Amino acid sequence: DKAGHKHFMAKEIAEQPSVIGAALSHYLSADGRNIVLPDTMPDFATISRLTMVACGTAYYACLTAKYWFERLAGLPVEVDIASEFRYREPPITPGTLALFVSQSGETADTLAALRYCTDRVDTILSVVNVAESSIARESDLALPILAGAEIGVASTKAFTCQLTVLLLLALRAAHARGQIDDDRLADILSSLRALPSTLNTAMERNTQIRIVARQLSTSENALFLGRGLMYPLALEGALKLKEISYIHAEAYASGELKHGPIALIDDTMPVIVMAPCDALFDKTVSNMQEVMARGGRILLISDARGIATAGDGVWQTVSMPDIDPILSPILYALPAQLLAYHTAVAKGTDVDQPRNLAKSVTVE
Ligand code: F6R
């Protein structure tokens, strides 16, 4: 049931404010001030390293979470693609917590990576959508993301629910390790509680993004740039676009532009820059100037201050509501998804069942 939407993907994008709200009510106390996790949750104060393993979009959720765990909790983090991890057979040092992220809970490589860790770590933790899945069953503790069934092959609401649960874990870790003061924690939790309504405001950009997407749909290539927390999201934005619109899209950390991809820039290359006006914004402005000087067309997704700072010369802008920068990947996922969706619709591709792809990759 598409609930009045043309595609499951559109329905699942639109559902994000409510499913994130459901995940938050599950993991927050009634007054919203405390993070509630099962008693069997390992103690983040006693671990020395976190290893996260996943595939595809779930891998990008892990890459985002690395920034959170490092910045908020001072915890060393490794993130790996499951198919690399399982065959590299990396050494696991004592005190490592292994965390697997999977929407379906059936991804063959992620499951194999989990099994590799079973006798090598004290606790196997997973963040899954399908609670009765193999990955959930074989974990010591499986935390549900509560996104509800995801039918569209391109993952959308599972991604933002994964991010929400991972951010709560990073906050728990920060608290357990004495790395965050009570005021900062209260601030972030209050922004999280407001997130469903912030996402609803961002949904109002839908029509504008559809118009931009119509223009993007005539391109053969696209480049996504992001820094810091926006870098993994740039990767996810490029993956969404290529999966469903078949436009060749690549993502780079903005600082890498000069180290190669700038050679691609000409007036046929749209460059999607996702950058709230945070501490790193000035550096992103210089990157945009480098692109514009070579005729590249910039689509800037930012907040009002960022758009004002970027000045003239930007091809298109999409203005996002203000948000605590630590939460920006969850909010900015929405325009990235909508951009891919509307581009695919404009191209007339099969949005919910893109060619060559399966929802659950149970063979390697
Ligand atoms: C992208 C997408 C895939 C999955 C990947 C992992 O839109 O859906 O990249 O994220 O196949 O799947 P799960 O999360 O089920 O392990």
Automatic annotation (TrEMBL):
The keyword Kinase is annotated on this UniProt entry: no
Primary subcellular site in the record, as a coarse category: cytoplasm
GO BP field: amino sugar biosynthetic process; carbohydrate metabolic process; fructose 6-phosphate metabolic process; protein N-linked glycosylation; UDP-N-acetylglucosamine metabolic process
Domain SIS: 40-179, 212-354
Name this protein carries in UniProt: Glutamine--fructose-6-phosphate aminotransferase [isomerizing]
Record function comment: Catalyzes the first step in hexosamine metabolism, converting fructose-6P into glucosamine-6P using glutamine as a nitrogen source.
Shown residues in whole-protein numbering: 244 to 607 of 607
Coiled-coil stretches noted in the UniProt entry, renumbered to this chain: none
